[in-house]
Amino acid sequence: MAAARSRERRLAELTVDEFLASGFDSDSESESESEGAAGAETRRNPDGPGGAPSASQHKGSASEHKDQLSRLKLRDPEFYKFLQENDQSLLNFSESDSSEDEGQQPHSLPETLEEASEEGDEDEDGVSRGLKGKKRDSVPVTLAMVERWKHASKHLTPRLFHEVVQALRAAVATAQGDQEGAEASKFQVTDSAVFNALVSFCIRDLLGCLQKLLFGKAPKGSSRVQQPSSSPLWGKLRLDVKAYLGSVIQLVVCVAETTVAAALLQHVGNSVPYFLTFPKQCRMLLKRMVTLWSTGEETLRVLAFLVLSRVCRHKKDTFLSPVLKQMYITYVRNCKFTSPSALPLINFMQRTLTELLALDTGVAYQHAFLYIRQLAVHLRNAMTTRRKETYQSVYNWQFVHCLRLWCHVLSTVCPSEALQPLIYPLAQVVIGCIKLVPTARYYPLRMHCVRALTLLSERTGVFIPVLPFILEVFQQVDFNRRPGRMSSKPINFAVVLKLSKVNLQEKAYRDGLLEQLYDLTLEYLHSQAHTIAFPELALPAVLQLKSFLRECKVANYCRQMRQLLEKVQENADHICSRRQKASFGVSSQQAVDAWEKQTREEGTPLTKYYSQWRKLRDREIQLEISGKERLEDLDFPEIKRPKLGDKKDEDRVEFKDLFDLDSDEDDTTDFSERGTPGSSGAQQRAEDEDEDGSSSSEEASHLEDGGPDVEAGLVPLELRLLAQGPEDELQDLQLSEED
What we know:
single chain, mainly alpha, 1% strand
């Protein structure tokens, strides 16, 4: 600073001529400017031009370091002495050290940087994902290696587990056809026998050995699931376990054999605590399990549901709501078509989805409210617009199965304060669905809705007026009307929503409809058989059944309904006799509830009859299903019977000469003009044949062949001509006897 001030004073003392004569720069200024520029350049680019440090900078830094050490000796001799004793190399620093460093190649950044990801941490086989160009030699896995791993797994180590996981990853990559993954793996599995042995070893033994490695021997009698992350060895095994679980999920996707898939799903069910540690792998697993739950074979569907249930029970807050949403969407998608073969699958999905909804009533209320509201919106649009498209949005299998599902959920979870407010809107939606198009063609759909309402009313204890929708059918259908056509097989109302106009004319339609009315009336009255108001509740049914018995002329129909009427009246008399002994009033709700509970426990005549009828009915359904399966398996030969008309034509051609009469045209004219009684009788019979088509062909053939009715009305001349016929016939018979 002092030198700079002295230069400023000298410049101030100079005149203009002296300043111009001395020049614009001086040595001192040029030196200072060059030093300043060099310092700034050093700060901007410490490595010198081109990114490499210069030799002068290395020399300057070395001499400066030596000066600092010499000053340190004067300022702090004790610390300098300490350096001499402990770090002599620091004090013996020379410029040659910097020159050696100068010869080394400096570090340079790569052209492309690798992206950090969670997947990159999973690679423990020494192959970097950024160096895909370099291929490593894969070690082929043999049966001897698998057997060696199996024996060594009794004392499993992290290194051995790592090798087994890498071999499994290579096997899965080969099974999926992933060529890049197979080449980048440490091992290579190409033999099917090796693949089967390796997968079998992992499914049967590896998980138990891993559990033993993490926790040792499990304490006896402990049912609590141990978390793998609580083990001290979890840090070393975490990445390998993650890779193993990912390989297991991929294996579930690519395995097609049912037995292998079942064993694999059992292994997955035992591995649920490990899946819960990795949310990403757990979400992938749940997605695959929902697919198997809806489309797999029966055993696989059950095992997949067990996995879903176990995951949702342990992590309700995280996985229950998304799993329920995905399962409901899958349920609706699979209910689009209903057949006798698909109905058991739909019922299974309905029961299992209800079980998961019962885990948390709060979450169940959110889903039930949302989806019941969607059904109500569809029904409202159909009622307001009244077009064919909006009717079809309600009158389809998906809508009906959704109504059945939510009725089943509310009746199963009941009593529940959370779901109790949804009973009334759901019942209103079902009743609105019945009233939308109340025609005979949609009677099967009405039966499904009535069954859902009966179940909801029985389980929840809420009164729902179901009986009028059943009794209304008795008034709308004429059971005395003769059927228009006969049907070869009965109508299965369980898999039908709509009947055709042809079905309405069949006898099987009335038989099946009356059977359905019998079942529905008995089921609903059975659900109310213990109530104190049963006589008043059953009075409309009693009156309707009596009216039906007075008007119906079909013996089979009357027999069924008379039996039902007797049981209903017997149950009403039983309730009346018990009510007369009661000492409480109608306003005492607690006393009424206790009376009904006692009546239900003791049983009523209708409940006893219903239990016996239910057993027989279920047995009939099972026999019907098994009988259909047996008949489908048999290959019956087709029997071709000749038509009756063809046979008569052949007879006429064969015996034409036998009945050929040699009569003149005059005689024939005389025969037709006389108007004999036989001819008038033939005309009368021809008129009758128009009414009865089954006997027309037979009577016409008798007329043409000369039947006894025609012969009875012939005149003597005609009888003489016909007398020649029997003579020829007797002669033919005589020749046949001689032969």
